Structures are given as C-alpha cells and as structure tokens.
Amino acid sequence: MAKAGDWAPRVLALLRAGNTAAAMAQMKVAPSVRDLQALQAAMAKAQLAGRWREVDAVLADSLLELSAPRKHRAP
After folding, report:
1. What is the distance between the alpha carbons of residues 74 and 49, in angstroms, rounded to a whole number?
2. How many CB atoms lie within 10 A of CB 37?
3. What is the pLDDT of residue 73?
4. Contact of 15 with 45, CB cutoff 8 Å
5. Burial class, 63, CB count within 10 angstroms (exposed 0-12 / middle 13-18 / buried 19+)
C-alpha cells in the first residue's frame, strides 16, 4: 500500500512527463485537500504553476469542491 504522502509527487511526475490528462484525472479524485495543497506547493516549487491553464483550473476546482462544508468523499 502506498504511503499517505505519495500522491502529490506521483501527480507531479505525471505533469513533468507531459501527461496532463492523467494528472487532471487524478486531481479530480484526489484523496484529500491536504494532498491537493501539497501538489499546489510542489508545482509552485518546480515552477510549473501557470504552465497549463486547464491543469490550474482543475486544481482550483478540486480544491474548492473538497474544501466545501458537508462535502466529502466516502471511503
């Protein structure tokens, strides 16, 4: 089983490889807000934030959806 903190680096690797469609699909089913925030910070650190407009939009939408009160994913 993967460690809890492995999600963001794996999605970042997808982005670096140029597979934006797979990265966006992973963002839509992200395990938690914390993981999305870690991905956002990693993208900023790697200077990838703002490189793909659609990726940034999916990341922002996913953050909003998971941050909304009473909205959560069932285990």
Report:
1. 29
2. 16
3. 62
4. no
5. middle
Q: Cβ contacts of residue 24 below 8 Å, gap of 6+?
A: 54, 55, 58
Residue 23 vs residues 6, 20, 40: alpha-carbon distances, Å: 14, 5, 12
Residue-by-residue pLDDT tens, the chain, 75 positions: 456 579 999 999 999 999 999 999 999 999 999 999 999 999 999 998 889 999 999 999 999 988 877 655 666
DSSP per residue over 7-64, as a string? HHHHHHHHHHTT-HHHHHHHHHT-S-HHHHHHHHHHHHHTT-TTT-HHHHHHHHHHHH
- 59: which 2 tokens? 């990341």
Length of the chain measured in residues: 75
